[in-house]
Predict the 3D structure of the following.
Amino acid sequence: MEEVNCPLCPPGTPTRIFLRSQQGKALFTYVQCRGCGLVFLRPRPGAAEIQEFYAEDYYGEGSHKFRSWLEVPRNFFAWNRVRRVRKYFSRPGKVLDIGCGQGTFLQMLQNEGWKCWGTELTEESARRTSRLGIPVYAGEFDENRFPPHSFDLITLWQVLEHLPDPGKILKGSSRLLKKGGILAISTPNIDSLQARISAEQWFHLDPPRHLYLFSPRTLQRMMESLGLDLLNLRYFSLEQNPYGWLQSLMNLQGFPQNQLYSILKNTPTSRKRRLFSLQQGKTLLWAAGLLPSCLLLSLAMAWMEKGGTLEAYFRPADRPR
């Protein structure tokens, strides 16, 4: 385990304990910086230790992370992301998706004439997107793989919270943007009602994989320090917010931690659990009953600007910083 300081404030800025979360036999602590309000894991696993938490059960097996019948909604969610980013461009360009997963978003952009690149943490996960004919780099993000000002669009969908040094990755990404380019980010919102009610049972907490938890204020502060201006901030994600409520409420109601999520994933562990059909059926029926309420909650919280996730679009500032 390693100690870390707030990346937005001077070293030694005091913190307070925000919450503690038990994961198996391990206890993880999130602290909040008293200077800026950023929430982060401290202490946290080192570079070698963290790999243990990104095993096969995290990525899923084969070409899909989730069970095959979920591909239809997953494709719809990816298409919606394409539709939202397309509004910023009059024609196709070049895109880099950091943490591209199985590459559905990039494949859809490629079909529209975009030139696409991706990155993934492991070779195995990178192969999923490489099979689509899209170049994917495995390992830590390295801006030196590309010339400066290479991309019209750089995206980090539910990735920023995983990065040990988000400022470094964002700074490198901003250097790779063309003039007028867009940096699109989605990340859990620690300032949401979903996070406050769920506390250590919040689905999007996910220690120790989630190292930083941003609010609108801390996200914008980090981006402004890197010379990036906010264009648009959304508090609603049909892909993330209703499910975040659903799984968090089921956790609070005493179901095994993130059990529904485990059932939905395409992993050896989830296939073994399918043998316990009675418990699985109970979980799925309970989830189906809760889902309409979770959708309404998500819409209400987005209107109040307290949605469970943030989706933000930034552009390099015209003035030097």
